[in-house]
Amino acid sequence: MYISSDTNVWNDFREADFLDVPFRLPFHFHIADIVYQDEMSIPGYFDDRIVALGLHHVEVTEEEIADAERLNQESPGLSIQDCIALSIARCRKWTLLTGDRSLSTRARKEGVEVRGTLWILEELTRRSLCTRQEMTRICNRMEGLVRSGRLRLPLAELQRIRESL
User: What is the pLDDT of residue 95?
Assistant: First the structure.
């Protein structure tokens, strides 16, 4: 599976200190090169570690840029970076990885499959790529970050995943 991503799911895993865990999945994670440069290459933020783990940069085509500009005009609540991630997914028929509700809604209207942080946790569990103890630690850490306001994830869903282990 090929996946176009924005930055917020990666921020969730970075914040929880489990940035490496999603890369156990047998998926091809991508981010637009210009989005990576704008949002993720800040010194001390990801420090190219995420690239070493397996996040691939993808060059945005002229068609994707034009599509992103159209999406941005039609959905002014979305950033151009969000629209680029969506455009890549739409034009290449990839899945979009995001936790942004507005972007998810627009992507579904465009016929794009959308996944997020919780889906990654569920896939890791379903595929037995984390031990029960490790997944419990991940869920507990993310729940604590939600309670402290550092992550915006549905607490009930995190608890459901942890309780299903």
Answer: 98
How do residues 99-138 score in pLDDT, each as one tens digit? Answer: 999 999 999 999 999 999 999 999 999 999 999 999 999 9
Q: What is the pLDDT of residue 39?
A: 87
- If one counts every other C-beta atom within 10 angstroms of the C-beta of residue 44, the result is 5
The CB density around residue 52, as the number of other CB atoms within 10 Å, is 11
Q: In this structure, what token pair is assigned to residue 5?
A: 């991503």
Over the stretch 43-93, which tens digit does the pLDDT of each residue have? Answer: 888 878 899 999 999 999 999 999 999 999 999 899 999 999 999 999 999
User: In this structure, are residues 94 and 5 in contact, taking their beta carbons and an 8 Å threshold?
Assistant: no
Residue 129, Ramachandran bin (φ over 0: left; ψ between -120 and 50: alpha; else beta): alpha
Which pTM was predicted? 0.95
Following DSSP, what letter does each residue of 39-82 receive, concatenated?
HT-STTTTTTHHHHHTPEEEPPPHHHHHHHHHHHHH-TTS-HHH
Distance between CA atoms of 10 and 143, rounded to whole angstroms?
Answer: 16
The rounded distance, in Å, linking the Cα atoms of 145 and 11 is 12
Domain architecture of the chain: domains with CATH? 2-116 (3.40.50.1010), 118-163 (no CATH)
